[in-house]
Amino acid sequence: MMLKKITPFVFFLFVISGAHSQTPQLLMDINTDSSAIDLYDASLLEFNGNAYFDANDGISGNELWATDGTSAGTHAVTDIWPGNGSSNPRGRIAYNGLIYFSANDSIHGTELWATDGTSSGTFMVKDIYAGQNGSAVNNFVLNNNRMFFSASDSIFGNELWSTDGSDTGTVMVKDINPGTASGFCSGFIVHNGKMYFTAKTDTTGYELWISDGTSEGTHMVKDIFPGTGDGYSYGQWCEYDNKLFFSANDGVHGFELWKTDGTGVGTEMVIDLYNGQTASYPSGIVVYNGLIYFPGADNVNGRELWSSDGTAAGTLLVKDINAGLAGSFPLGLTVYNDKLFFRANENISGAELWSTDGL
Fold first, then answer.
1. What b-and-e string marks burial along 141-152, b requiring 16 or more CB atoms within 10 Å of the CB?
2. Rounded-to-integer distance, Cα 211 and Cα 59, Å
3. Looking at residues 298-314, what average pLDDT do you find?
4. ∠ at Cα 137 (61, 57), nearest 5°?
5. Contacts of 86 (CB under 8 A, 6+ apart)
6. What is d(CA 356, CA 328) in angstroms, rounded to the nearest whole number?
7. What's the pLDDT score for residue 25?
8. What are the residues whose beta carbons fall under 8 Å from the beta carbon of 271, sequence distance 6 or more?
9. Cα–Cα distances in angstroms (integers) from residue 292 to residues 216, 236, 275, in the given order
10. Where are the domains of the chain?
11. Which of 212, 250, 299, 346 shows a CA-CA span of 20 to 30 A to 190?
12. For 259-271, what is each residue's pLDDT tens digit?
């Protein structure tokens, strides 16, 4: 069952040359200083035939770049923070024919920006928090023909906002944590046409929320941990059987496997895997062969690989890889070629690559 040792990865701007070649080649040495970090964020966004990323060439700071896969076609889009200051573009997402992201131009702080991929077509959408403070826009998600995100202004704190791409069409959806306090919305997922996310109020703590994009349609699903305790704050989801599965804490059982259909009544714990107040901390949940799989701990086997059909009776230990309470600590569950791959440690060979067919 064990395949080979897991090794760490190092990211550079490389391309694979040739249809069948396995040899990566350096595309461009963006910053010729050998001690410098060229790429601060290794994620790429594909848009209109180019890939977009942020990089630092040692002259203009960390800015937005584009590449068509050739050295000649790799270039900075624009210098948002003029000179060697860094605008630190983050959260790139394509919407309505443009790329939207957060950036700081040194005058307005970190705000919502957009680009068509050209210098002249790069602009700030709205100065949400007027002045140099910046609105700290983050957590972009698309739903129902609009883009949603979290942001702060000078009146309401960090709350749920939406935009149609225009200044006047960029508005706060709801003041979740009333007044100057912040709701800190994050961990968005779109399920059945609605957004699910974690948010807080001063009276409920961080809990599970849902929104259809309107103020009236934005509300807490359930106060999982009654009172000010945090019932849900991780923002890790898995869609299965027309429900969302996640890890939550009701204040009695610790963090365990939960599910929701979007209603308070339909939000419930699947199983108390680690009996009592000790948490099993299910995480990295994936769907495979008609079931969900996740690492979790109980008081007999330690942290091992589990499967579930969404019921307590149908939640089973796949294998006690590291026999006893020590646990094998499965990590990085990935479905590939009809098998589920993950890292685990059986306490003989160390952390290695494992696979299972679920049987």
1. bbbeebbbbbbb
2. 43
3. 97
4. 10
5. 56, 61, 62, 63, 104
6. 14
7. 76
8. 256, 257, 308, 312, 315
9. 33, 14, 21
10. 236-257+270-359
11. 250
12. 999 999 999 999 9
Strand partners of residue 320: none
DSSP per-residue string spanning 165-218: SSSTT-EEEE-SS-TTS----EEEEEETTEEEEEEEETTTEEEEEEESSSSTTE
Reading across the β-sheet that carries 2-5, which strands appear in turn? 2-5, 351-356, 339-345, 331-336
| Beta carbons within 8 Å of 101's beta carbon, 6+ residues apart | 64, 89, 90, 91, 92, 93, 112, 113, 114, 115
Structure tokens at 35: 């001690």
Q: For the whole prediction, is pTM greater than 0.70?
A: yes
Per-residue DSSP letters for 295-339? EEEETTTEEEEEEESSSSTTEEEEE-SSTTTT----EEEEEETTE
Which amino acid appears at position 113 of this protein? W
Q: Give the whole-angstrom CA distance, residue 354 versus residue 344.
A: 7
Band the pLDDT of 325: cuts 50, 70, 90: very high
Rounded CA separation 247/117 (Å): 39
Q: 200: which 2 tokens? A: 């807080």
Q: What's the confidence (pLDDT) of residue 6?
A: 33
Tens-place pLDDT, residues 197-215: 999 999 999 999 999 999 9
**Using an 8 Å Cβ cutoff, are 51 and 45 in contact?**
yes
Q: What is the mean pLDDT of residues 20-39?
A: 67
Report d(CA 209, CA 250) in Å as an integer.
Answer: 15
pLDDT confidence of residue 14: 54
